[in-house]
Amino acid sequence: MAIRMPRIIQARKILRRSLSNGSRTPTYTDIPKGYFAIYVGEQEKKRHMVPVSLLSEPLFQDLLHQAEEEFGYNHPMGTLTIPCSEDVFTDLASRLGAF
Predict the structure, then answer these.
(1) InterPro entries, from UniProt (predicted)?
(2) How far is CA 15 from the centre of its chain?
(3) Could you say which of 14, 18, 76, 90 has the lowest number of CB atoms within 10 Å?
(4) Residue 13 pLDDT class (50, 70, 90 cuts)
(5) 38: enclosing H helix or E strand
(6) What pTM was computed for the model?
(7) For residue 44, is it within any domain?
């Protein structure tokens, strides 16, 4: 079993950039410890709380790279946005143990 530290570190950097480049200041009081907020959806975006442990999952890292390609780091929503349907994300997150 190999540990992919460079991918984990890169995923964390993507998350930090997304949170720091937002148009509004994130409110950390409504995010439980060990979680982070993301928006999911192609047209209408819905906010989800996701455990930080997903950052080490290769499938979730692939989604982060897609988000980087589609939205870049300065997204108007002000936080990380995943460009896939909510059904696909919910299915993936439940298989990875997030929900």
Answers:
(1) SAUR_fam
(2) 7
(3) 76
(4) low
(5) strand 35-40
(6) 0.61
(7) yes
CA gap 29, 14 in Å, rounded:
21
- Asked if residue 15 is part of any domain, the answer here is no
| CB-CB contact of 71 with 84 (8 Å) | no
With b for 16 or more beta-carbon neighbours within 10 A and e for fewer, the 39-69 pattern comes to: bbbeeebeebebeeebbbbeebbebbeebbe
Query: Mean per-residue pLDDT for 23-38?
Result: 70
Q: What's the structural domain count of the chain? A: 1
**Model confidence at 18, in pLDDT bands (50, 70, 90)?**
low
Please report the sign of the dihedral spanned by the C-alpha atoms of residue 28, residue 62, residue 67, residue 16. positive
Is 38 part of a structural domain of the chain?
Answer: yes
Find tokens 């692939």 and name the residue.
62
Q: Is residue 48 part of a domain?
A: yes
Residues in the chain: 99
